UniProtKB/TrEMBL annotation:
It comes from the Bacteria. Keywords: Aminopeptidase, Cytoplasm, Hydrolase, Protease. GO terms for molecular function: aminopeptidase activity. It catalyses: Release of N-terminal proline from a peptide. This is Proline iminopeptidase. Belongs to the peptidase S33 family.
């Protein structure tokens, strides 16, 4: 069973001005002369962490991590009043291009999971000449059925106890309606306590359902109010706007991935991003290898997922 590479520290960090008053945090670790790879984090609004450097052989890769607009170490942070109106998928794609150019990278391997898979696909379909390969995990295609499954009650049939906690911040007379919109009203409330309560409930719902077996530490991490305000605020903003993509865009344009090698790693029991989306992507992009991990849920940190992701990054080593 493959495990993560040893802990490493960045060799270079910075903040890049990408316009709209936004400065995105970035870091580079590993071999400065290695093959470039960019880690595209989830959420949207999830931010980067030190563990994410460890999917890659530090002797072989120049490992680029960055925090997307409004979260992590990027500024201004949503918890500090950052502007959501300038936070869209097209702008995030543009930010990735500006970062690539800033770091003088010609082409890079793109690695993303959950929302990171969404943004990675959108980026690759827009800039296929800059992508030498894709490693994707926990596929999210932004189809209405996916949003409805997770925020409309489907996943609640598997986790009724956790679903009740998710519903708690929403007034009872709004619980049978569109919960993404109901949450939006709470998250945008002038009552800061109500907004924070909603953000924590939204954020911990995802942490609590992302693992095959419960992981209380992840729930605790997601209950941090600053993290939750960005995570919930940005996710809700994107999901109520179809992630600023046309309906079924990522599958419709999957032909643009022809010739780009890829690996899709999907947990069989992923409740957040069910395997049907990975299956649909594989059908539309047969050039990618699909690995379904039978003893895993959604999280990239689950042992079976780690094994196959590290195998994939080793496969793409120069």
């Amino acid at each position: 069973m493959r495990t993560l590479y040893p802990e490493i520290e960045p060799v270079e960090t910075g903040h890049l001005d990408v316009g709209d008053g936004q400065r995105i945090y970035w870091e580079v670790s590993g071999n400065p002369d290695g093959a470039p790879v960019v880690f595209v984090h989830g959420g949207p609004g999830g931010a980067t962490n030190a563990l994410q450097r460890r999917y890659f052989d530090p002797q072989a890769y120049r490992i680029v991590l960055f925090d997307q607009r409004g979260c992590g170490q990027s500024t201004p942070h949503i918890a500090d009043g950052g502007d959501l109106s300038v936070n869209t998928t097209d702008r995030l794609i543009s930010d990735m291009e500006k970062l690539r150019e800033h770091l003088s990278i010609d082409t890079w391997l793109v690695f993303g999971g959950s929302w990171g898979s969404t943004l990675s696909l959108a980026y690759a379909q827009s800039h296929r000449d800059r992508v030498r390969g894709l490693i994707l995990r926990g596929i999210f295609l932004v189809r209405p059925s996916e949003i409805d499954w997770y925020y409309g009650g489907g996943a609640g049939h598997i986790f009724p106890d956790l679903w009740e906690k998710f519903l708690a911040p929403i007034p009872e007379d709004e619980r049978d309606g569109n919960l993404v919109e109901a949450y939006h009203r709470q998250l945008m409330s002038e009552d800061s306590e109500a907004a924070t309560r909603a953000a924590v409930a939204w954020s911990t719902w995802e942490a609590a359902t992302s693992y095959l077996l419960p992981k209380p530490d992840a729930v605790q991490d997601n209950s941090n109010s600053r993290f939750a305000l960005a995570f919930a605020g940005i996710e809700n903003h994107y999901f109520r706007n179809n992630c600023f993509l046309e309906e079924n865009q990522l599958l419709r344009d999957a032909h643009l991935l022809d010739g780009i090698p890829g690996v899709i790693v999907q947990g069989r029991y992923d409740v957040v991003c069910p395997a049907t989306s990975a299956w649909a992507l594989h059908k539309a992009w047969p050039g990618a290898d699909l690995v379904i991990v039978d003893d895993a849920g959604h999280s990239a940190a689950e042992p079976g997922i780690v094994h196959h992701l590290v195998e994939a990054t080793d496969r793409f080593r120069p």
